[in-house]
Design brief:
The protein is an alpha+beta fold. It is built from eight helices and four strands, in the order ααβαβαββαααα. Strands 1-4 form a two-stranded antiparallel ribbon. The protein has a two-stranded antiparallel ribbon with strand order 2-3. α5 packs across α7.
C-alpha cells in the first residue's frame, strides 16, 4: 500500500468565531508574566516563569501502569533547553502499526488517514486522578485536581489525534516547546477549552503537561507547529460545539441522577 497524503482540512481560525475570554484573576504565585516587548525579553521571562516547575529526569523516564509518568514537565533552567518542555518523544517510534496490511507502508510523513478530536469529562478525570489513575498519561505520580483550576466541570479537549487504519503516527517532528510558541489570544482560548485541572488557573507550569504532551506526540504529526495544531483543534471544537453542549447536558443529568 502506497502512503496516502493526509486529508486536507479547511478550518477557519476559532479566534474570529469566539467571544473574547472573560478577564481572569490569577493567583499571584501562579501569575504568568510573559507579555514582553521583545522576543529576547519574552524568552528570559519564560525561563524565569519555568523556575520552580516540575523538571523531568534526564534518564529512566517512563509511564507506569497507572498512567502516571515522570516523562513530563520542564527540561530544566539551564543550557539550550532552558525554559523548554521535556522531550517526551526520545526513543518513540514514528509509526505504530497493528496491521501491516493497512498501515505497513506508512512513514509518519503527513500520511495519516483520519483524525479524532478527543474530549474528556473533567469530573471523570478528577475522579480518576483521585483514585490514582491518569487516563491522559500526562501527569506525575500524586497529581490531583486543584480547587482553583480554570474549570472542574464540563467537557474539555484532551487532544486531536491523527490516526491510521489500525495504527497511528506519533512524535513525527522534533519539538522544542516553549510557552511563547502559542500567541497570547490563542492561549487564552485554549485555557478555557483545553483545561488541565491538575494545575491552578494561570499556572505557567501547566504548559509542559497536557498541552506539550499532546503536541509532541500527536500535533507534530498533524501540523507544522504548535500554533497550527491548536488552531485546528480549537476550530474543530467550535464546529462541534452544539454536539458537545448536548453531550455535556446528558453527562450532567446522568451525574446528578447517580
Amino acid at each position: 500500500q502506497a502512503p496516502s497524503p493526509a486529508p486536507a482540512l479547511a478550518l477557519p481560525s476559532p479566534l474570529a468565531a469566539m467571544p473574547p475570554p472573560l478577564p481572569r484573576t490569577c493567583h499571584p504565585a501562579a501569575a504568568v508574566a510573559v507579555a514582553a516587548a521583545t522576543a529576547a525579553t519574552a524568552v528570559a521571562a519564560v525561563g524565569a516563569a519555568a523556575a520552580g516547575c516540575e523538571v523531568c529526569p534526564a534518564s529512566h523516564r517512563g509511564t507506569a501502569s497507572s498512567g502516571f509518568t515522570n516523562n513530563t514537565g520542564w527540561a530544566g533552567s539551564s543550557g539550550s533547553t532552558a525554559g523548554a518542555c521535556c522531550d517526551i518523544c526520545e526513543g518513540a517510534p514514528r509509526v505504530n502499526c497493528f496491521d501491516p496490511s493497512t498501515c505497513g507502508n506508512k512513514t509518519g510523513d503527513d500520511d495519516w488517514d483520519f483524525a479524532i478530536l478527543d474530549q474528556i469529562w473533567l469530573p471523570q478525570l478528577c475522579g480518576a486522578l483521585g483514585a490514582r489513575h491518569d487516563p491522559t498519561l500526562t501527569h506525575s505520580e500524586g497529581s490531583r485536581c486543584k480547587s482553583d483550576a480554570r474549570r472542574l466541570d464540563g467537557l474539555s479537549i484532551h487532544g486531536l489525534w491523527p490516526n491510521y487504519i489500525n495504527g497511528f503516527p506519533s512524535c513525527c517532528k522534533p519539538s522544542l516547546l516553549r510557552p511563547e510558541l502559542l500567541p497570547g489570544r490563542l492561549r487564552e482560548v485554549a485555557a478555557e477549552e483545553w483545561v488541565d485541572p491538575a494545575f491552578s488557573d494561570c499556572d505557567n507550569c501547566s504548559f509542559c503537561s497536557m498541552w506539550a504532551h499532546e503536541h509532541m506526540k500527536h500535533g507534530s504529526c498533524f501540523a507544522d507547529d504548535m500554533a497550527g495544531y491548536f488552531n485546528a483543534s480549537l476550530a474543530l471544537a467550535e464546529r462541534l460545539r452544539p454536539v458537545t453542549a448536548a453531550l455535556d447536558g446528558l453527562l450532567r443529568r446522568a451525574t446528578a441522577a447517580a
